[in-house]
Write a structure and sequence with these properties.
Elements: H1 9-37, H2 40-47, H3 52-58, H4 61-92, H5 98-112, H6 120-133, H7 139-165, H8 172-190, H9 192-199, H10 206-230
Helix pairs in contact: 1-2, 1-4, 1-6, 3-4, 4-5, 4-7, 5-7, 5-10, 7-8, 7-10, 8-10
Length: 231
């Protein structure tokens, strides 16, 4: 992380505004180009700053990317924190019924598939997130994302599935069910062009996302109820 900070109060505020502008521009550039193809010159141009500003505030392209990931994690917890907390309470209570456990899992998946209409800024973050999930990022970013976000999600989903299915938490089937449930909604964004072509849609707006959300959650509920019946 960059060590430089403007000295005066006014300079500090301008510095933070410049830093924020670079981050927003970087999210859009990384989302459009991917990490490897993006350059600090591209980011500086999009932010309306001189290229040396990138090194001044972030040290390197990787430094900018890691700060984007840190901010993305903050946004994701704002969106998903309450649902994950509720699921952890349900799975931590030995008296929770299967239905309570299922609702805990559905709550997490519903948060992932939030139907809040994208602003231009949030749309850029979603594209950035999709590339991050696809592995178009430096290894250091994957480590941060796993440690500060994904590990907790994986843990609670596996615990929920283990309770419902009777499998051990570390059983391959538990892990595969967890991965399948968590990624099925994201797949619609990762393969957006195929989705639009197959359904003759022009765009995925609020109405279309509601339909996707309803189908994915219904399918997830069917799977979870099936696991509970088989246990």
């Amino acid at each position: 992380m960059a060590r430089h900070r403007p000295a005066s109060e006014g300079g500090y505020q301008r510095g933070e505004e410049t830093r924020a502008a670079i981050l927003l521009a970087a999210v859009a550039v990384f989302g459009e180009c991917g990490y490897e193809r993006a350059s600090t010159r591209d980011i500086a141009k999009a932010a309306g700053v001189n290229p040396p500003s990138i090194q001044y505030y972030f040290d390197s392209k990787e430094g900018v990317y890691l700060q984007c990931v840190e901010h993305l994690i903050t946004l994701l917890w704002q969106k998903m924190g309450a649902a994950v907390d509720a699921a952890e309470r349900a799975v931590g209570d030995g008296t929770s019924s299967d239905q309570m456990l299922i609702e805990g899992a559905i709550g997490i998946l519903g948060a992932v598939l939030s139907t809040t209409k994208d602003t231009t800024q949030m749309g850029a973050w979603r594209v950035f997130f999709d590339r991050q999930q696809a592995g178009s990022c430096p290894p250091s970013a994957t480590v941060i994302f796993e440690r500060k976000f994904k590990a907790r999600i994986d843990s609670v989903m596996r615990l929920l599935i283990a309770r419902l299915s009777g499998f051990e938490v570390g059983d391959d089937r538990t892990i595969l069910h967890s991965m399948a449930l968590f990624t099925q909604g994201l797949a619609f964004r990762a393969h957006k062009s195929r989705l639009l072509s197959a359904l003759n849609w022009k765009e995925v707006n609020h109405k279309e996302m509601e339909m996707i959300r309803g189908i994915v959650l219904a399918q997830a509920r069917f799977t979870l109820e099936g696991l509970a019946r088989q246990s």
